[in-house]
From TrEMBL:
The protein's name: DUF1249 domain-containing protein
Organism: Lysobacter cavernae
Database matches in InterPro entries: DUF1249
One Pfam family this sequence matches: DUF1249
Domain of life, source organism: Bacteria
Length: 171
């Protein structure tokens, strides 16, 4: 009995923050395998696999150590007109981390956790967002999205109005 208790005491425990950093690392690996976004120029890209539900990847900004991205199906929320689901992402090249900074899945973060949440609530919300992102990236890979299906969209034609097939034809 004492050897079991001693063995259990030696197993390190991972804090919620440590778990979150692990999610960031896993999501970086998933996105890098899927789209290699560090190599993409700023602009809009569509990934079409023939299922009628094209994926849109916006490379908002490329910096030396980070890339700002937005990932969405370009489906519109009927109440707000915003793409839903969508995720704003920050890719840290040097740390090999991918952080979902904002997700829109029917509601904004302020509606979910309030304007001035306690730190524990912020960490919990970030864990939920980044878990969602990891599952979404896995799903996209399973469906066949990837570098081979990604095409640039001509500037000025990238609306969220549901005309992704026309956009892909113009790319």
């Amino acid at each position: 009995m004492t050897s079991l208790a001693t063995h259990a005491a030696r197993i390190p425990r991972l804090s919620r923050f440590g778990w979150l950093m692990g999610l960031y690392a896993e999501n970086h690996a998933r996105l890098a395998r899927l789209f290699a976004p560090g190599d993409l120029a700023a602009g809009t890209y569509l990934s079409s696999i023939g299922d009628g539900l094209d994926l849109r990847l916006d490379v908002i900004e490329q910096h030396r150590y980070t890339t700002e991205l937005r990932l969405t199906y370009a489906l519109q929320d009927p109440l707000t007109g915003e793409p839903d689901p969508s995720a704003y992402l920050r890719l840290y090249h040097d740390a090999r981390q991918l952080e979902a900074t904002h997700c829109y899945i029917g509601r904004r973060w302020q509606d979910v956790i309030g304007m001035y949440p306690p730190p524990a609530e912020v960490i919990g919300h970030r864990m939920r967002m980044n878990t969602f992102l990891g599952k979404w990236l896995e799903y996209l890979a399973e469906r066949g999205h990837g570098v081979a299906t990604l095409r640039p969209v001509a500037t000025g034609t990238a609306g969220y109005g549901g005309n992704e097939k026309n956009l892909a034809a113009n790319a």
